[in-house]
Amino acid sequence: MLTKRIIPCLDIKDGRTVKGVNFVDLRDAGDPIELATIYAKEGADELVFLDISATEERRKTLAELVKRIAEQLDIPFTVGGGISKVEDVTILLRNGADKVSVNSAAVKRPDLINELVAQFGSQCIVIAIDAKQVDDDWKVHLVGGKVPTEISLWDWAKEVEKRGAGEILFTSMDHDGTKNGFANEALAKLNELVNIPVIASGGAGTMDHFANTFLQGKSDAALAASVFHFKEIEIVELKQNLKEQGIPVRI
Q1: Domains in the chain, please, with CATH?
Q2: Most buried by CB count within 10 Å: which residue of 71, 184, 218, 241?
Q3: CB neighbour list of residue 197: distance below 8 Å, 6 or more residues apart
Q4: Annotated catalytic, 88?
């Protein structure tokens, strides 16, 4: 069985790491370079950097900051925010990113996924999907969760896999920042529908929440922010806890 991955996430706004609840009420969580260095040393399997306001503010991800963070890392590094064309990815990879995360631009122009996969390979392309429950379905939202669509999470997930994406990063907007656990029912369904890895995001609050998303949600990886930023959970202790529950992790 493949090892399950623990992935800290740096949500960046104005060059600082921030964290909110349900995608709003952001508060400062520290210097991204310092945090990245700590997580790499503590045993994180990967690191995700999301420039959360790049799309809304119509600018590109902070390439210089990406480069400075990448210089501190010896683990895979995924970068997202404001990516809308092949050239954007080229710049990020040159500055040290190993993978890129694309969200709004892929929904608006799905052919972008095919173009990026053709140029860089599936292993490099992560499609981030922000969704929330609307009536009895999960609907995709864009621009940092600010713009709702009528697109079903399930339909979009199947399409991004068909177009060659290597991974899906699914964030439940309903669970984001609540620390009440991941959206495991939705994650389990998602993992049944697609054959590419699914990263769970939104809702981590305890070590059991991580175990539950691996066991119940069938997630391949779990991403979290505030519980790591504010030292509520230590990565070393989390991995030991998971190992004791029979969940395969890299220690």
Answers
A1: 5-244 (3.20.20.70)
A2: 184
A3: 166, 167, 168, 220, 221
A4: no
